[in-house]
Design brief:
Strand content: 15-25%
Number of strands: 10
Largest sheet: 8 strands, parallel
Number of helices: 11
Distance between the termini: 29 Å
Structural class: alpha/beta
Order of helices and strands: EEEHEHEHEHEHEHEHHHEHH
CATH superfamily: NADP-dependent oxidoreductase domain
CATH topology: TIM Barrel
Bound molecules: NADP nicotinamide-adenine-dinucleotide phosphate
Strand order of the largest sheet: 3-4-5-6-7-8-9-10
Shape: globular
Length: 267
């Protein structure tokens, strides 16, 4: 599994991690992912999956990078502290590697939320601060609200079918060394399921390029995400075989010509 630097931290994280929203696969797919080096697991207090992550990392905690999120409904100072404590309890660990604000909430001043995030880092309950679903303006405001620690990542929707971030957020993050954690990188399976791949011209191009590369469409779609600087992807699967397939999206690269063709087909 290839790695990427998280923000400007110097810490390496796998370029493919595992998401666990709507996850019901139990511990096995997560343990297999960890064995394969996809040892970044992304959960959230609202997913209801922190407990299974806690079970999966038992005995291997030090090998896994745990990312979780505070709900956008819990962004008042004391709510953030309580939410982090509850996540740590469910995850059965003493520190969260990356604590992300799940979505912005304009009803709470970002300064108040970030003061709580900094307290969590000071107390060694959180290692790094991230955000999710933040626009460029919200990201800038969040950065300005932090005094002592940087924002290392923004977790946002990004896949071949959903490329909105390319016009503003993505170049800003690249310039400012903020990792983009691409969520829904398989477009909820639309870029992976064979019957759908015959549905339109762009999907047929994906299927052909995947075949040319000797990879599956899911692997080609994930690898395309990784062709962008500073991007990592966090596909979700309940199944060991698909986790193995998705992890094998790392360790090779589509050619520049293939990336260009996909860019044009899905423009
Ligand atoms: N921050 C946010 O607001 C936010 C929002 C959405 C998602 N996320 C994060 O991103 C993660 C992934 O996003 P997502 O779950 O929305 O979508 P996704 O990873 O793009 O797609 C997941 C779907 O694709 C299927 N799938 C996975 N691998 C496959 C493969 N190799 N072949 C065929 N089908 C495959 C899965 O089915 P099976 O499980 O049956 O294999 C599931 O139905 C989430 O788990 C979560 O951690 C974050």
């Amino acid at each position: 599994m290839e790695t990427r630097q998280l923000g400007a931290t110097g810490v390496k994280v796998p370029e493919i991690g595992i998401g666990v929203w709507r996850y019901s696969g139990g511990v096995e797919p997560l343990r297999r992912a960890i064995e394969l080096g996809a040892a970044l697991i992304d959960t959230a207090e609202v997913y209801g999956t922190e407990e299974v992550v806690g079970q999966a990392i038992e005995g291997v905690r030090e090998r896994v990078f745990i990312a979780t999120k505070v709900s956008g409904a819990h962004l008042r100072h004391d709510d953030v502290l309580r939410a982090a404590q509850a996540s740590l309890r469910r995850l059965q660990c003493s520190i969260i590697d990356l604590y992300q604000i799940h979505w912005p909430n304009s009803a709470v001043p970002i300064q108040e939320t970030m003061r709580a995030m900094e307290t969590l880092v000071d107390r060694r309950m959180v290692r790094y601060v991230g955000v999710s679903n933040f626009s460029l303006a919200e990201l800038r405001a969040a950065q300005a609200a932090l005094n002592n620690y940087p924002i290392v990542s923004n977790q946002v929707l990004y896949n071949l079918n959903r490329r909105e971030i390319e016009t503003g957020l993505m170049p800003y993050c690249e310039r400012n060394r903020i990792t983009i954690i691409a969520y829904t990188p398989l477009d909820d399976g639309r870029l992976a399921q064979i019957p759908r791949l015959r549905a339109n011209k762009a999907l047929r191009v994906l299927a052909r390029i995947a075949a040319e590369a000797g990879k599956t469409p899911a692997q080609a779609a994930l690898n395309w995400c990784l062709s962008r600087p500073g991007v990592i992807a966090i596909p979700k699967s309940n199944h060991v075989a698909r986790v193995e397939e998705n992890c094998a999206a790392s360790g090779w690269r589509l050619t520049p010509a293939q990336i260009e063709e996909l860019d044009a087909a899905f423009s």
